[in-house]
Design goal:
Oligomer: single chain
Mean pLDDT: 96
Radius of gyration: 26 Å
Strand content: 25-35%
Number of strands: 36
Amino acid sequence: MTAFSEEMRLDGRAVTLVIAIQQDAPVVLYWGPRIDTTVTAAMLQTLATRDVAPSSPSQDAVVALTPMPGAGFPGRPGIGVDRAGVDWAVNAVVTAMTQETGSITIESVDTAHGIALTHRLRLSPDDDVLIASTTLRNIGSESLAVASLVAPVIPLPDSATRLTAFEGRWSGEFQTVAIDRPPGLWMRENRRGRTSHDSFPGLIAHDAGTTERHGDAYGFHLGWSGNHRIHVETLPDGRAHVAMEALYLPGEIRLEPGETLSTPDLYASATADGLTVLSRGFHKFLRRRPEHDRLRIRPRPVHYNTWEAVYFDHDPAVLMQMADRAAAIGAERFVLDDGWFLGRRHDRAGLGDWSVDPAIYPEGLAPLIAHVEAAGMEFGLWVEPEMVSIDSDLYRAHPDWAMATPPAPPRPFRSQLVLDFGRAEVRDHIHTQIGALLADHRICYLKWDMNSDLNQPGGVDGRAAADAHVRGVYEVLDRLRVEHPQIEIESCASGGGRADYAILSRTDRIWTSDSNDALDRLSIQRGFSHFFPAELMGSHVGPATCHITGRRLTMATRVQTAFFGHMGMELDLRDLDEAAFADLAAGIALHKEYRGLIHAGDHLRLDPRPGVDAFGIVTADRGEALFSYTCVEERRAAHPARLRLAGLDPDGQYAMRSIWPRATEATTVSGDALMRAGWQPPRLHPGTGVILHLVRA
């Protein structure tokens, strides 16, 4: 352990963080691609010395890890607190700064206002992802109202003039939008109560010329599954920084004397080698987590999900037939989706009554589970524990358990309301119900869905309850994971509405989108890949005509898109003719052959071309690769442009062949030629594609 010092440094595999004390506050002097160990904080401070500008303070207030309103900071403060209108002008002073292998802890105190701050920064020498958090402690004698508290603030270099943010909608998540970094404040807020479809808590700042393989890039993600705020501020003096935080509703957070509040973890990485390498750092970080070990024990099972096949029309005999078809086509896990529990014949009733409906399953789920297992598959089950239907026994018994903002009338989604997981009795009830299901049945997988925003996030006491709800969900999931460690859990929120690193510490898969339209999925999955690897991305072969978009696509295209995630199927297998059945079976068999590469290799997004989606997966030693090429739109030229591959060994000779939708003979080509001259794609109709396989000789 290193004692209190005026400067400290953390080095990851390819990134460096340098912290120093300036004006009694902790400041990031450098965050970015790794710099030589001979570079000192004194050098960095000398290089950053500026003249006094006209009509400006004689000394600019620093951009501290928590910019403080009492220190004269001219931008948006990193902390907003008060005690009945006073004690708001926080100006904490560093009192302790310690370093251990891979971590720095900084203590700061403002005795005048009864505030203490702790900043924790962790960076493993083997990783490229910084984990940073801020903890506020009330050391005063009266309660403290907290309006805002940001995770540690990270400065941006002058060259990072572009921002890539994430937007979208239901069935169209993880869409990227790039803008010039504006002067002043750029801010995005999410008040959905879950991560949301339209404002994923991620951001990439980069140079104007940065591409997938070249240029500086800085990535940021807030590991939090609820309301959040992201802002990038460029001060009038030119300094810029990124801040992320959980967004608190009025009166939601109040600390009594001695109580603490910690921000969600901020995850940050940086590179000088383009956007794909930035993503690779996040992927490797997730794969190194202890939670990821359970996913490496065996190959990720291919799913069959019943939702778009039967919806609420459950018939055990039909489902057993479907299970036989699913097993014959190559499925390894059978997931019974919505419609199995009490009174659930449509989406307007039943949520909250988590017992098997005897009207449909007179012998319970045991015969179906036994049939699924006899067919060689695991059994999984869909649940939506955070919701309650107005037409349910639970709501009739406990209407006060639902979130509400009286006297305003309830505004249900799909005739359902959100249970207040901030209440212990609600958490205990749901934990008991779901725990009983897991104890009484051989269930290997839970699809945990959450189909409503917290549009009226109030508790029975009249106080805002969004933050407590998220923490309550975490608690229930944590309890279930301890009691049933063998269970895999999927985070689904009407698609990708709850996708973040905090929920991933409790779950094993993200349902990326409710849309199974293979062409729409390409952009959704491309956006998802900026922060998440393929084995965490649920991706299914849907019906020939997508139920959401109405677009009709070939089986080959639907297989190709689902091939590169945690693959599954979600269609009525009774509708498949002999040729379609054979094609799907062949696609699943091919996925099983290559899923070890897909779920462990390096993901390479190729620089976008108009009307084309292309990416690759390459082994760490560059000895084997898969590349996906899809024609999305009609091309203008008679032939498509050549595609330069990436991530190969330039000195290697590769046997290259097409493996989907048709296998071809291999040709031998050098890695250098493939990356510099490029590969000539065939003429393809829109909505069709090809998968290439390369093996270094």
